[in-house]
Structure formats: structure tokens, C-alpha cells
């Protein structure tokens, strides 16, 4: 079945425009481009008889500082009409009181009259559960985990988490409530060890009705996970070096798509690749298509660099 990969965010931890750059006057990229924390949403679907795409599984890789804006932008473009077979505990919509001010006269900033208006509010139990993805994390840096609180508030009940042992332990120690069922169950969902999968190098696992394989990559002084998606695309968002053994393995995959970290055109960065690094690795891996992700303001606002696609927020790729 086909999959769709949506670039939720195409930028680095600082985002683009860079605030530091703007404080110095701003470069051309910072004046014209918006790139949020790197993240992708993978959707598996099948085509109905009417030609529409029916979602049968989805996965979000990383949930950073900009997740709230990223997911709301995604909801703006998808069909969010309610269908009974997609609802959790469908109940009759309740009428809630919403205070709206109907101001007729204001004198010296004093409210003269207000009116209480009854308005239909969609009950929070009626939600498109097919739009709520499983969550995979590459590593525990802020640009990968800082949106988890928002993510958990999209649903309720126990949820799975896919990450390495270090990330899982750090989250459990730092954000205990992520792993505790709330007393008011309608407030948010929570992670459980029973539903979660601890990732390691060369592990094949299932998430969102799709098959993934995880790879432990060097990311400066720590590591981050990369993922082979349905055997078709390799996603390497945070990486400072690809080892010889990994290069040989990736080349044998005959990849259709390689999504790869590219922070800058050149110059050393302890945790990320630059364009010169990418050229060297692509020559070894030999994918059909290359998409640069995690791009800072040093990467120009162009469609392609050296025959590599430059990702942008909202970019979508359909893979058969």
C-alpha cells in the first residue's frame, strides 16, 4: 500500500528565521523562509472506490517545540468531517454555554450590556482517531520531545511510545506525568511500558500499521535513531557521521528516498552534517532521490541544491 510522508518541520532546533540572525539585521533566508523543528508524519492509506485516501495507519517521528503549530497546520488541510466509524465513544453533542459579549454601548471602558449565547460545542470524545499518529522519537533533545505534552492532549487512554532506552528513561524521570494515568481520564493520554517499544540498532518493529527498522547513528557526543520506512525510504534527521558498515548496508537497500540531515552548506558542526558531507555519503548510498532536512538559514530558499531536494514545511511525498 502507498505511504505519504509529510514534512511537518524542515528546520533545526533554533528554527528559521533565526532569532540570533534577526537581532543582527536578518539574512535573506530569515526574511523569506519559515522552517520549524525537523519532524515527519508518515501516513499509510489505501484508495477507496471513490478515489479518496482512507488512512489505515500513521506515525509521527519527533515532536518538538513547534509541534502545536505543525499539527494544526496539518489539520487545516485534511478532511476533518466526522464519521461514525472513526469516533471514540460517539455521543450526542452537548450544548455548552459560551459567554460572548454583545456590546451595545461602552462608556469610559465600562460594559453596559452583555448577552449569554448558547453555542454548540463539539464534544471532546468525538475525534478523528485515524489522524492521531503513533509517536517515534529519534533522541531526547528539545527539538524532538518538547511537544509531547501537546501530543498527549490530543487523545485519552494508554498510548505507545517508540524510542531508545536512554530517551525512555530520561522522559520517565523528567516528566513523570507522561507515564501516569490522569485522575480525570478525559484530560489527556499517557504512555505505558507495556505498550511501548524500546528501540535499538538494527531492530525491526511495527508502528502505525507500518514496518520500520531502527539504526543507531552518531549525533555529536550522543546518538540518535534513523529509520527505514516500509523498506522504501531512509530517514536520518540528526547525524554527524555515517559509519563504513552503515554505508555498505544502506547502499544494499536500493533506496527510493533518502531524507538526510543537512544543517549548512559547509563548516564543522559537532552534531550535524553539511552539504559536503551529504554529497560524500550519497555517492556511497546511491538512493534514487535525496531530500535535505534539518536545514538552517545557511541553506538557501531553493528547490534543489546539487540535485538534492531542499525540504520545506508542508512538503508531501507519495511513495508507492
UniProtKB/TrEMBL annotation:
Any one GO MF annotation of this record: hydrolase activity
Alphabetical list of SUPFAM superfamilies matching this protein: Metallo-hydrolase/oxidoreductase (SSF56281)
Stored Gene3D superfamilies: Ribonuclease Z/Hydroxyacylglutathione hydrolase-like
Alphabetized UniProt keyword annotations: Hydrolase
InterPro entries listed in its UniProt record: Metallo-B-lactamas, RibonucZ/Hydroxyglut_hydro
Residue stretches making up the Metallo-beta-lactamase domain: 135-293
Name of the protein in question: Putative Metallo-hydrolase/oxidoreductase, Beta-lactamase-like protein
Gene source species: Pseudoloma neurophilia
Amino acid at each position: 500500500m502507498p505511504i505519504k510522508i509529510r514534512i511537518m518541520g524542515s528546520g533545526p532546533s533554533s528554527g528559521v528565521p533565526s532569532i540570533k540572525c534577526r537581532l543582527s539585521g536578518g539574512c535573506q533566508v530569515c526574511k523569506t523562509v519559515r522552517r520549524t523543528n525537523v519532524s515527519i508524519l508518515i501516513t499509510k492509506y489505501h484508495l477507496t472506490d471513490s478515489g479518496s485516501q482512507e488512512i489505515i495507519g500513521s506515525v509521527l517521528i519527533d515532536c518538538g517545540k513547534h509541534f502545536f503549530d505543525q499539527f494544526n497546520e496539518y489539520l487545516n488541510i485534511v478532511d476533518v468531517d466526522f464519521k461514525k466509524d472513526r469516533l471514540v465513544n460517539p455521543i450526542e453533542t452537548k450544548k455548552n454555554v459560551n459567554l460572548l459579549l454583545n456590546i451595545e454601548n461602552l462608556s469610559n471602558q465600562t460594559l453596559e450590556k452583555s448577552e449569554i449565547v448558547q453555542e454548540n460545542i463539539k464534544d471532546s470524545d468525538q475525534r478523528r482517531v485515524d489522524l492521531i499518529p503513533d509517536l517515534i522519537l529519534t533522541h531526547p533533545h528539545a527539538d524532538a520531545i518538547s511537544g509531547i505534552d501537546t501530543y498527549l492532549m490530543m487523545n485519552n487512554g494508554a498510548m505507545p511510545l517508540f524510542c531508545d532506552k536512554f530517551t525512555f528513561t530520561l522522559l520517565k524521570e523528567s516528566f513523570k506525568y507522561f507515564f501516569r494515568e490522569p485522575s480525570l481520564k478525559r484530560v489527556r493520554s499517557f504512555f505505558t511500558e507495556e505498550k511501548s517499544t524500546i528501540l535499538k540498532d538494527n531492530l525491526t518493529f511495527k508502528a502505525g500499521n507500518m514496518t520500520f527498522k531502527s539504526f543507531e547513528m552518531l549525533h555529536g557526543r550522543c546518538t540518535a535513531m534513523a529509520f527505514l520506512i516500509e523498506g522504501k525510504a531512509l530517514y536520518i534527521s540528526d547525524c554527524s557521521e555515517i559509519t563504513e558498515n552503515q554505508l555498505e548496508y544502506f547502499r544494499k537497500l536500493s533506496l527510493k528516498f533518502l531524507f538526510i540531515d543537512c544543517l549548512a552548506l559547509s563548516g564543522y558542526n559537532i552534531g550535524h552534517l553539511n552539504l559536503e558531507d551529504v554529497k560524500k555519503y550519497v555517492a556511497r548510498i546511491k538512493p534514487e532521490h535525496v531530500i535535505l532536512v534539518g536545514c538552517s538559514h545557511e541553506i538557501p530558499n531553493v528547490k534543489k541544491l546539487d540535485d538534492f531536494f531542499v525540504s520545506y514545511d508542508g512538503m508531501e511525498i507519495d511513495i508507492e
